[in-house]
Design a protein that fits this description.
1441 residues; alpha+beta; 5-stranded antiparallel beta sheet; 44 helices
Length: 1441
């Protein structure tokens, strides 16, 4: 689950490259699995040079001085520009060149004591005044202070390049830019080559200000009026050049030119006596009204060249021969270069012919660029680029200009590019004198956008036409169409003459570093839509510095951000390229721009995370992925960056002494990783496992930040006795993994935040042992309580911020269905939280036992779920147990009031008094419970897909823990918190208990609100609460319409699950309320059949019958099953009537025997006389044969009579047994009304069985039918009947004897009056044996129902009902039946069946004859009536006529 801190230390040590060796981890860094923690953080492609060794020594020295371990603070001071001095003949040559340049400048300025602008002193280096050397990010923050002192802010810092914000716009300049943007006017900007001046110009106004000077005297903005401002067109870009002022080094001169050719020149803007109103003006003779000025450049001190769209060039002189300011202009017209001495002499004398710059009529000027100096004093080369041609001029302030060459550069480049379509875009000159031309190549017609390339042209001498020596393609495209104007062309800038090059677009700058074989570095800096590039710094004038610069920078002006500087480390780029491929110059290496690589993604993400946050950064940080589905390279990169921030190994992180600010910064950066991915629309490119890991890393930093703030606050609050649990815990934890430090706590928060989960597990395993050791003494017990309290705080400060971060950023990370288990869901964390809750509750009990009797009494009187009774070590009954009623709840009804508010008055320090500690501990219970429940829920959700069996087990444990600790809040006076948590985690059972045990007054209101909120779930919990406590009245008495519907569903479900349960008995009441009379009738009928009381059964059945009639009266009830249900209801009522008749029969028999008149209203009596009466009834209605040959069945018979005597309902099988047991009815008065009932008891039994068979199992039905017919057959003495019918017996005597048998009466009643189906309910004697059903009759039905202690008397002992005795009695019945069959029962049964059938047929035929006669009589009578009616009608008609 958690990574080891020692592993991260080893990884951090391995990340530092060894001296003198190239980083060997370059190719293996990103080959590891994305989910592994051990991703190397070694810098890619670095090489150790002499200068890097020197810097490392300086860093180690500074680290030693500060006594800070290098492992924690990787210091990287700003690189100092220290170049080696020239030596030998090269030094002499350079010194001569410097002396010549110095004399040239002295003559030009008219003074000899002034330092030249490019003079290099010993130990100094010429620096661009616009920006300073780039600073690397230090770990101690020293460089950041330097940047702020220099007024710049880092916007981007890559491995080899950086972007800084130098200065913003003054307010007036910002208003000028905004106004121009609103009206769509063209805006240009630029910076000076010397000094720190910038300008922003429109067609009407040019604003100049000093952005880089600390002097307040020149910090103002100078607003210069443009020429022809009234007639200017907004879309035409003005032409502006910032020229060096000749009088003051802190001043600047400004040259502006309108599109129509009007010039203005301010020689001194800041310190000029006339201010902005004093300027020189001049008008160029364009000669063509359609021609417009479009290019301007300063090629030498005091020389400016202006070019028009049609190719006319003008030399503008700013200085006179005496060095005083002036403004003069003339068109360029020079002679071509001639060979030989005459040609050179003619050139010196000013001879030559005029040569136009543009050869074709439709050609236009593209760019101007200043070149190197020539052999003529005060002269410079000028490169002129048109659409098709490249020309080179020599322009001088005091000599005539010359055209050195003019070539068709497009044709030349096309030949080099194998015939590709070419467009030239810009030109620049390298320090070697080679010419760089920015081109666009259209290699294939199918490619819509051309590719950019840089062509390098070289001449063997100054006047010779150049040849193409290199054509280097770029990883860029050109948005414009080749050969068409109107699209803003990119610009090529070489600030130091190379090898660094910059291709400047409107919203991007491509940074390049060239070598002899191509580009060793290529990176693009993009800008946001509102921050386009307005202009760049003017190209520096030749000669460049003698030593090739180690760093290059380009200053530019952005639309909203102001002045920026782009810096590239040339030495590092070239050193890396050489180290990567020594001796191979033909391969170009672009490590930071490999599309789709992990290195490229990492570089982009790091720049966006550490520099792209906030609206102040004008740069646009974008990232794209072309991989379908999950991009593994992107996953590796984001995990690398996130893990480096978590482990504090990223070289972009600035270590601070303020550890809280340091942790907050890391948290903001680590969250920015996912924010950047989300904003780029690449969330789906990361797998859910990767997103989970990113979220986990951020959670740990959030937890660490909160934990440090907590400990810091404790130190500030209790300086004398500050709690040391966290300090000692961290020290012990790090020591357990082999790490030690002088300040273990800070070391943990700086380097081992990833182990914050391990820290909790370590505390969980070691804290109980520590507390047991401390509890041996009184002071130790107090310390143990303090440690328990502090442990709670540590747990809360770690898990609460982590879970809060996860919840607040769930939509960002989208890791809901992650198969990975979160670090907070570890089983040890679950055990820790449960243990902390138990320990906190015990701590509250211990503290209250000594200091707060109120809380202690409530805790002792409250039985929580799973509480153990200390007396017998058994579980105490809680409010959730069914045996505890609501009226005897163990919780105090007033628990909702906060009684603990009086505990610690005016005492806030829990370390001061036990009362304050008690209050603080009570306040910790609810947050701890919330954390515990949340971790349980998250863990269960994870296991439901990973391990369903474990999820079920954990769910059971969670239900116990949740209910226990929710109820523990009530005796502590935190019932409102218990309600909130129960609602949050939907513990509906506990919520119901809380309502009835803490807020009885508002129970109805709360119940209604919860039913509305939770619906059927809460209603089910509430009704189950009523059902467990058998509060039937409360269950049925509902006044909530929503609860009525829920109760209906609940009752129906319970009745269906248990048709004979209590809900089936009382559910009909709610059905009647809901006007569901059909369901009420069915429930009443079932309840009547299941009733144990005959009277109650009759009442229920009668109500059911009434409900059925109500159903018939409603037209919407048209169910065919209602008729069948009504029939069964009538049968059930008849069963009640039969049992009542049996009660009356046995009562009459006993009363008749005792000579007592029968009471028509029978009442049950449970005294001893009734017990004796039951025995008398059994004795009087049974024969001696039954009592002696089948004593056990006789005992069963007595028990059935007892049930009837006590008005208890009998089952169908018991009732059938009771009807067929009596075999002696002689004592019953034949005149008595019960005589006929008793005589037809056998046929009645068959009839009852036929009606109730639907409710009996097949085996029970078969056994009952055999029992009835077996006892019918045994009711006659077939041996005597056989003797009577032996010999010569006439048929009439045979029929008479058989007609007086019980079998004849039963068959006649069953087939005749009762019309039972034959042969379904009839059995032959040979099929009526009990042997086949003896197991069911004995073991299943009778033996298990009767106990040994039956009610008997000494004079009438009863046989115990056992399986053996029952089997013996049933075997006796089978023996008697077998003997009857041997006496001819089978043939007698057949003859009786034939006689009965014939008699029934005769009766039915006579009935049908009588019916026909009656029908004919009624027909003739109706005919006579109709005839009489017809005669009456005729008489009435005649009378009316």
């Amino acid at each position: 689950m958690f990574s080891s801190p020692s592993v991260r230390v080893r990884r951090r040590q391995a990340a530092k490259p060894a001296e003198g060796k190239a980083d060997s981890a370059n190719n293996s860094t990103f080959s590891k699995h994305p989910l592994k923690r051990g991703i190397s953080l070694a810098s890619q492609g670095s090489v150790t040079t002499h200068r890097s060794k020197q810097r490392e020594a300086e860093q180690q020295q500074q680290a030693a001085v500060q006594d800070v371990p290098f492992e924690y603070f990787a210091l990287a001071r700003k690189r100092q520009a220290t170049g080696s001095s020239p030596s030998g003949w090269l030094a002499q040559t350079n010194q001569q060149r410097i002396s010549r340049m110095q004399s040239d400048e002295e003559h030009m300025h008219g003074r000899s004591d002034r330092q030249g602008p490019w003079e290099i002193r010993s130990g100094e280096k010429a620096l661009d005044a616009v920006s300073s050397q780039p600073a690397r990010v230090p770990r101690d923050g020293a460089d950041e202070v330097t940047d702020e002192a220099e007024g710049r802010r880092t916007l981007l810092r890559g491995e080899n390049h950086a972007v800084f914000s130098i200065a913003g716009f003054p307010e007036t300049v910002r208003e000028q830019v905004t106004a121009a943007e609103l009206r769509g006017a063209a805006v240009v900007a630029g910076l000076s080559t010397t000094g720190s001046f910038a300008y922003v110009a429109t067609t009407t106004e040019c604003s100049v200000w000093a952005y880089g000077s600390a002097s307040s005297a020149i910090s103002r903005v100078y607003r210069l009026a443009m020429p022809d401002s009234a007639d200017a067109v907004d879309v035409e870009a003005p032409l502006v050049v910032l020229a060096a002022a000749r009088n003051e080094q802190a001043d600047i001169g400004v040259v502006v030119c309108s599109a129509s050719g009007h010039l203005r020149y301010w020689d001194c803007v800041a310190f000029g006596l006339g201010g902005t109103d004093r300027f020189f003006s001049h008008a160029l003779e364009l000669g063509d009204t359609t021609d417009r000025c479009c290019r301007i450049t300063e090629i030498h001190t005091g020389i400016v060249v202006v070019g028009t769209a049609k190719g006319r060039l003008f030399r503008v002189s700013l200085l006179s021969a005496q060095g005083t300011p002036q403004l003069d202009a003339c068109a360029l017209c020079g002679g071509t270069a001639r060979s030989g001495v005459l040609g050179r002499v003619s050139s010196l004398l000013g001879g030559g012919v005029q040569a136009p710059t543009v050869a074709e009529a439709d050609d236009v000027l593209v760019a101007l660029a200043g070149g190197g100096r020539t052999e003529i004093r005060h002269s410079r080369e000028l490169l002129v680029l048109t659409r098709t041609r490249l020309a080179k001029w020599v322009v001088s302030r005091s000599h005539p200009e010359r055209l050195m060459y003019s070539i068709n550069v497009v044709r030349l480049l096309a030949a080099e590019a194998s015939g590709a379509e070419i467009a030239v875009l810009d030109v620049a000159v390298m320090r070697s004198g080679d010419v760089c031309v920015l081109t666009a190549l259209q290699t294939l017609p199918a490619v819509r956008r051309p590719q950019l390339a840089i062509a390098v042209l070289r001449s063997i001498r100054a006047s010779a036409e150049p040849d193409v020596v290199h054509l280097w393609p770029l990883g860029l495209v050109y948005d414009g169409a080749l050969g068409h104007s109107g699209v803003e062309r990119p610009r090529l800038a070489l600030p130091d003459g190379g090898p660094a090059m910059y291709v400047v677009f409107r919203r991007a700058v491509s940074v390049l570093v060239a070598t002899s074989s191509g580009f060793a570095f290529e990176e693009t800096v993009s800008f946001r839509p509102g921050d386009s590039v307005l202009g760049i710094a003017a190209a520096p004038r030749f000669p460049y510095a003698l030593q090739e610069p180690s760093e290059s920078r380009l200053a530019l002006v952005c639309q909203s951000a102001g002045v920026l500087s782009i810096t590239v480390d040339i030495a590092k780029v070239l050193g890396s390229a050489v180290a990567a491929l020594p001796g191979l110059d033909a391969v170009v290496r672009r490590p930071s721009t490999v599309s789709g690589s992990a290195q490229g993604f990492q570089a982009q993400i790091e720049q966006a995370v550490f520099f792209g946050g906030g609206s102040h950064n004008p740069l646009l940080f974008e990232i794209t992925s072309q991989v379908a589905g999950v991009d593994s390279a992107l996953e590796i990169a984001v995990l690398h960056v996130s893990q480096a921030i978590l482990d504090n190994t990223s070289h972009f992180i600035v270590d601070r002494l303020d550890l809280g600010a340091h942790l907050s910064e890391r948290l903001r950066r680590i969250q920015a990783v996912m924010l950047f991915i989300s904003d780029a629309g690449l969330t789906e490119k990361l797998s859910v496992e990767t997103r989970s890991q990113l979220c986990s890393n951020a959670e740990k930093l959030a937890a660490a930040s909160e934990l440090w703030d907590y400990q810091n606050a404790l130190w500030a609050r209790t300086r004398d006795s500050a709690p040391q649990l966290l300090v000692n815990l961290v020290a012990s934890f790090l020591d357990s993994v082999g790490l030690q430090g002088r300040d273990a706590l800070r070391m943990f928060f700086r380097q081992h935040v990833a182990s914050v989960g391990d820290l909790l597990v370590f505390m969980h395993r070691n804290l109980p042992a520590l507390r047991r050791v401390l509890e041996d003494s009184e002071s130790g017990r107090h310390n143990s309580q303090i440690i328990s309290f502090e442990a709670n705080r540590i747990v809360l400060r770690i898990l609460q911020p982590a879970l809060s971060f996860r919840f607040q950023n769930a939509e960002l990370y989208q890791c809901k269905d992650s198969p990975l288990s979160a670090w907070t869901e570890h089983s040890s964390i679950l055990d820790l939280l449960a243990l902390r809750l138990e320990a906190s509750y015990k701590l509250c009990r211990d503290l209250s036992g000594s200091h707060c009797a109120l809380i202690y009494e409530r805790i002792e009187n409250s039985a929580l779920p799973n509480d153990e009774d200390p007396a017998n070590h058994s579980r105490r009954l809680s409010i959730f147990d069914d045996a505890v009623s609501a009226s005897h709840a163990s919780l105090t009804p007033t628990a909702e009031s906060d009684e603990t508010s009086r505990l610690a008055v005016n005492i806030d320090d829990p370390y001061a008094t036990p009362l304050a500690l008690l209050r603080e501990t009570i306040d910790q219970m609810a947050p701890l419970a919330n954390l515990c429940f949340r971790v349980f829920v998250d863990r269960i959700a994870h296991l439901q897909t990973a391990a369903p069996a474990d999820a079920h087990e954990l769910s059971s444990r969670y239900e116990v823990v949740r209910s226990r600790f929710l109820m523990s809040l009530v005796p502590l006076g935190r019932a409102p918190a218990a309600f909130c948590l129960a609602e949050e985690y939907q513990d509906l059972d506990t919520l119901v208990v809380l309502v009835f045990t803490t807020d009885c007054k508002n129970a109805a209101v709360r119940l209604h609100r919860y039913v509305q909120r939770f619906g059927q779930g809460f209603a089910t919990a509430l009704l189950a609460y009523y059902e467990r406590r058998q509060a039937w009245a409360s269950l049925l008495y509902t006044q909530d319409a929503d609860l009525d519907a829920c109760l209906k569903n609940y009752v129906d479900q319970k009745a269906a699950a248990d048709p004979h349960g209590p809900m089936a008995q009382i559910g009909w009441i709610h059905d009647v309320k809901m006007r569901d009379f059909g369901s009420a009738a069915a429930k009443l009928a079932r309840a009547g059949r299941d009733s144990l009381e005959v009277d109650q059964a009759r009442t229920m059945l009668s109500l059911s019958k009434l409900a059925f009639y109500t159903v018939d009266s409603q037209e919407e009830f048209c169910d065919n099953t209602i008729a069948e249900a009504r029939t069964r209801l009538e049968d059930a009522l008849e069963l009640c009537e039969v049992q009542e008749n049996l009660m009356l029969y046995f009562t009459a028999t006993v009363n008749s025997h005792r000579g007592v008149s029968s009471d028509p209203v029978w009442r049950r009596r449970d005294d001893d006389s009734d017990k004796k009466a039951v025995l008398d009834a059994a004795m009087l209605t049974s024969s001696a044969e039954l009592r002696h040959t089948r004593p056990t069945l006789y005992t069963v018979y007595i028990e059935f009579i007892r049930s009837v005597w006590n008005a208890r309902s009998l089952s169908v099988e018991d009732l059938l047994d009771l009807l067929t047991f009596p075999d002696c009815t002689a004592s019953v008065n034949t005149a008595d009304s019960y005589g006929a009932f008793v005589r037809e008891r056998y046929s009645l039994a068959v009839d009852i069985l036929s009606r109730a068979s639907f409710n009996l199992p097949e085996q029970a039905r078969e056994g009952a039918l055999k029992t009835i017919w077996r006892r019918v057959f045994l009711s006659d003495d077939w041996s005597s009947i056989g003797k009577k019918l032996s010999g010569n017996v006439p048929d009439s005597a045979l029929r008479d004897v058989l007609a007086h048998t019980s079998l004849y009466a039963v068959l006649d009643s069953c087939l005749g009056s009762r019309e039972l189906a034959h042969p379904d309910w009839f059995l032959l004697p040979s099929h009526s044996f009990a042997a086949d059903d003896i197991e069911y009759l004995v073991s299943t039905r009778l033996a298990s129902r009767f106990s040994q202690d039956l009610h008997d008397t000494p004079e009438r002992p009863l046989s115990p009902v056992t399986s053996v005795a029952l089997r013996k009695d049933y075997a006796e019945e089978d023996r008697q039946l077998h003997a009857a069959i041997e006496c001819g029962l089978e043939k007698y049964y057949a003859e009786i069946m034939r006689i009965v059938s014939d008699q029934i047929l005769q009766r039915r035929s006579s009935l049908s004859t009588n019916d026909d006669v009656n029908l004919r009589k009624s027909g003739s009578e109706s005919a006579n009536v109709e005839a009489l009616d017809a005669e009456d009608d005729e008489d009435m008609q005649m009378e009316s006529e």
